[in-house]
Amino acid sequence: MRLDIVTIFPEYLEPLNVSLVGKARARGQLDVRIHDLRDCAHDKHNTVDDTPYGGGPGMVMKPEPWGEALDGILASGEGEPVIVVPTPSGAPFTQQLAVELSAKPWLVFTPARYEGIDRRVIEEYGDRVDVREVSIGDYVLAGGEAPVLVMVEAVARLLPGVLGNAASHQDDSFAPGAMADLLEGPVYTKPPEWRGRGIPEVLLSGHHGKIARWRRDEAFRRTDRNRPDLIERADPAAFDKHDRAI
Ligand code: 6GU
């Protein structure tokens, strides 16, 4: 998969050299290209922002540097990328969207600072390729770079061969499947006793049926406590008598 990221803070994206994403890059599974938007601002001060038409606080990112940067990127590859525009006004970034994006060969991210990008940029590229305005949650950040780190990690770990164990995202919270509507439950490892705290007996029983039931009950309890909205919104057929007794 190819990823292009256009930013005025290339150094903010240094974490893409680390851990899972860094290793995927080193193995050639991810081709990440970071572009400095200021290279496309040609006045003396490499200006990328200006005051908003209609007045109001803050600054708006000017269209010309974005146009030059995105035209260059689009012309540099085969076919069409999906352009992901991080904005608190976007549609929610969900596991479903991560799965959808992970199937694309080429993504372009346009993290903005200030009050956002001149609307005409989104319209212009929306007429040419698939453009998605995406938010990572109901809070406001100072810019789109941290959301890009979040989205790239969520997408990269879904690529074939990137996670050590392909089975390890089968039972992720929010993954489709048997526990589709529930959060993941608690996990334990050695030692069997730590600061006087043991391991739930059933996990030592070797009884796979009982272990699966226990895990589901724990997942249900945790979901009921932390995210009751997920249970409200789920298909009632997803729950059995045993779940409902909890
Ligand atoms: Cl994608 N950008 C900014 N600036 N703030 C956010 C966001 C994105 N998602 C949630 N808050």
From TrEMBL:
<dbReference type="GO" id="GO:0052906">
    <property type="term" value="F:tRNA (guanine(37)-N1)-methyltransferase activity"/>
</dbReference>
<keyword id="KW-0489">Methyltransferase</keyword>
<dbReference type="InterPro" id="IPR029026">
    <property type="entry name" value="tRNA_m1G_MTases_N"/>
</dbReference>
<keyword id="KW-0819">tRNA processing</keyword>
<dbReference type="InterPro" id="IPR016009">
    <property type="entry name" value="tRNA_MeTrfase_TRMD/TRM10"/>
</dbReference>
<comment type="function">
    <text>Specifically methylates guanosine-37 in various tRNAs.</text>
</comment>
<feature type="binding site">
    <location>
        <begin position="136"/>
        <end position="141"/>
    </location>
    <ligand>
        <name>S-adenosyl-L-methionine</name>
    </ligand>
</feature>
<dbReference type="InterPro" id="IPR023148">
    <property type="entry name" value="tRNA_m1G_MeTrfase_C_sf"/>
</dbReference>
<comment type="similarity">
    <text>Belongs to the RNA methyltransferase TrmD family.</text>
</comment>
<keyword id="KW-0963">Cytoplasm</keyword>
<dbReference type="InterPro" id="IPR029028">
    <property type="entry name" value="Alpha/beta_knot_MTases"/>
</dbReference>
<protein>
    <recommendedName>
        <fullName>tRNA (guanine-N(1)-)-methyltransferase</fullName>
        <ecNumber>2.1.1.228</ecNumber>
    </recommendedName>
</protein>
<feature type="domain" description="tRNA methyltransferase TRMD/TRM10-type">
    <location>
        <begin position="1"/>
        <end position="232"/>
    </location>
</feature>
<dbReference type="GO" id="GO:0002939">
    <property type="term" value="P:tRNA N1-guanine methylation"/>
</dbReference>
<dbReference type="GO" id="GO:0005829">
    <property type="term" value="C:cytosol"/>
</dbReference>
<keyword id="KW-0949">S-adenosyl-L-methionine</keyword>
<comment type="subunit">
    <text>Homodimer.</text>
</comment>
<keyword id="KW-0808">Transferase</keyword>
<dbReference type="InterPro" id="IPR002649">
    <property type="entry name" value="tRNA_m1G_MeTrfase_TrmD"/>
</dbReference>
<dbReference type="Pfam" id="PF01746">
    <property type="entry name" value="tRNA_m1G_MT"/>
</dbReference>
